[in-house]
């Protein structure tokens, strides 16, 4: 049996593969709202059984983690851990969807549904890729372990504890994750790390309740203005963060990583169109460096006073802002939070700073031997050398593998660049889904050599 047989098998099984994916996409699984989580976990277990595993359910204080194993006949074979998640983001705003978010619909060569790209379509492709290999070859050339969690969209709250408690069971030579978006050029992309994340909220209070803006104007303080003034002390007009020590401990890019970023293709107008910002004017090296090697300081929500239609002339009693920072290796979210908190208190002693969540950054060296083997498998699957990016702009719990499990880790996005994950009309192209199945089988084959 040869690898072309895998490609033929995937072509023959397209309808069955879509039926499998659609069954899981139809099941709501919004972790932050605890909607449909047990039902979706049960469907994932059924699929794991179809592949040949006997899945185990590990309860957490939140949503369950699913685990399964498949053994090679060769006891000396490498062990590969495949990771994914079955939870999704809320679909709001619903009126922006062209078709219902939990009724998968094919239009223009794409599957539209919440979770199509992030991450149900990608983890299903991994599972079906393993099944394709077994159906074609009968046995595996590597040992496989699957970890599929239900809290990634909540920040993988209980995954670190699970990995810490089960390090012996999870011990692997490589962690291979299919998540994220492919490169904007459409070429296959390998990611060797992620940025970390810290999210927090700052709240300022004035009077005990909202006041008439005329009767008490100039009398009671306005916390909205105080919050704006505080934010101006935290970041300048060029985007430089003014919090003391914010840029400490950042690991500079190596010469090899800098070359990889420089070699990534980039078309500003094309990327600008795809992200809804046609004014994008960065050059490629600056774009990729900002996206992977630099931290961010982002406001993702502000609230104060009256925000509905019409006029309500009040001086609000409270004002708050929610901030997320994407952190790079070797920044520590706890350290950054303490520095932000100290900055806020020094400028506004009565402000409240609340920690909302965090995730550590992670990076695996590009010259890691087993990573190079997996890259060779990806090259075979797509018949072209994949692009290699040292880090993803977003955040995933990659550090649990590199820092806790002490295993090299890599990500191979199976979804298209314009998948619109977390937004209305999330999608994955049919080609990307089927290529993900093929790619999984090719990587398994190469790692088994």
Overview in brief:
The chain starts with a helix and ends with a helix. β4 (105-107) and β5 form a beta hairpin. The mean pLDDT is 96.
Outline the structure in words.
With 449 residues, the protein is α+β, with helices and mostly antiparallel strands. Helix content is 34%, strand content 20%. The protein contains 14 helices and 19 strands. The protein has helices at 3-12, 14-25, 37-51, 120-137, 159-165, 167-170, 223-232, 255-263, 268-274, 284-292, 333-347, 369-382, 399-404, 430-447; strands at 56-58, 65-70, 79-85, 105-107, 110-112, 143-149, 174-177, 189-191, 193-194, 196-205, 211-212, 298-304, 314-315, 318-327, 352-359, 362-363, 387-389, 409-411, 427-429. The strands form 6 sheets. Strands 1-2-6-3-7-18 form a 6-stranded mixed beta sheet, covered by helices on one side. A 4-stranded antiparallel beta sheet has the order 12-14-10-15, covered by helices on one side. Strand 4 (105-107) and strand 5 (110-112) form a beta hairpin. Helix 3 packs parallel to helix 4 and helix 12 (369-382) crosses helix 14 (430-447). The two termini are 15 Å apart. The relative contact order is 0.20. The mean pLDDT is 96.
The largest beta-sheet arranges its strands as: 1-2-6-3-7-18
Spans with pLDDT under 50 lasting ≥5 residues? none
Number of strand elements: 19
| Shape by Cα distribution | globular
Main sheet?
Answer: 6 strands, mixed
Mean pLDDT: 96
Tell me the β content: 15-25%
Q: Strand pairing plus helix content: what structural class?
A: alpha+beta
Q: What's the number of helices?
A: 14
Radius of gyration: 23 Å
Distance between the termini: 15 Å
Helix content: 25-40%
């Amino acid at each position: 049996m040869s690898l072309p047989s895998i490609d033929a098998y995937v072509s023959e099984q397209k309808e069955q593969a879509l039926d499998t994916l659609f069954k899981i996409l139809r099941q709501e699984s919004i972790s932050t709202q605890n909607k449909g989580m047990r039902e979706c976990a049960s469907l994932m277990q059924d699929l794991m059984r179809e592949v040949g595993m006997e899945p185990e359910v590990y309860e957490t204080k939140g949503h369950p983690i699913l685990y399964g194993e498949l053994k090679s006949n060769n006891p000396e074979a490498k062990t590969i851990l495949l990771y994914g998640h079955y939870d999704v983001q809320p679909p709001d705003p619903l009126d922006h969807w062209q078709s219902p978010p939990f009724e998968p619909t094919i239009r223009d060569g794409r599957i539209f549904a919440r979770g199509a790209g992030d991450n149900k379509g990608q983890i299903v492709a991994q599972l079906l890729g393993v099944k394709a290999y077994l159906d074609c070859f009968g046995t595996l050339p590597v040992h496989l372990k699957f970890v599929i969690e239900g809290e990634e969209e909540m920040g993988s709250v209980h995954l670190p504890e699970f990995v810490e408690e089960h390090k012996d069971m999870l011990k692997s030579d490589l962690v291979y994750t299919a998540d994220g978006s492919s490169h904007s050029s459409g070429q296959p992309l390998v990611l060797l790390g992620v940025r970390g994340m810290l999210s927090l909220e700052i709240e300022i209070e004035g009077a005990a309740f909202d006041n008439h803006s005329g009767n008490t104007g100039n009398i009671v303080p306005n916390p909205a203005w105080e919050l704006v003034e505080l934010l101006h002390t935290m970041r300048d007009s060029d985007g430089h963060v003014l919090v003391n020590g914010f840029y400490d401990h950042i690991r500079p890019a190596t010469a090899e990583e800098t070359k990889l970023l420089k070699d990534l293709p980039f078309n500003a107008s094309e990327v600008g169109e795809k992200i809804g910002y046609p004014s994008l004017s960065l050059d490629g090296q600056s774009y990729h460096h900002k996206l992977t090697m630099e931290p961010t300081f982002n406001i993702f929500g502000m609230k104060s006073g009256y925000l509905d239609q019409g006029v309500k002339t009040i001086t609000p009693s409270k004002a708050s802002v929610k901030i997320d920072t994407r952190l790079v290796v070797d920044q520590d979210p706890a350290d950054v939070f303490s520095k932000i908190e100290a900055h806020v208190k020094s400028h506004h002693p009565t402000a409240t700073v609340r920690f909302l969540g965090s995730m550590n950054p992670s990076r695996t060296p590009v010259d890691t031997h087993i990573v190079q083997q997996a890259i060779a498998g990806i090259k075979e699957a797509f018949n072209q050398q994949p692009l290699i990016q040292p880090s993803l702009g977003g955040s995933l719990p990659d550090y649990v593998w590199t820092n806790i499990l002490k295993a090299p880790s890599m990500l191979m996005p199976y979804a298209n660049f314009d998948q619109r994950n977390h937004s209305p009309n999330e999608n994955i192209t049919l080609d990307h889904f089927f290529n993900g199945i093929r790619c999984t089988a090719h990587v398994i084959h190469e790692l088994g050599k």
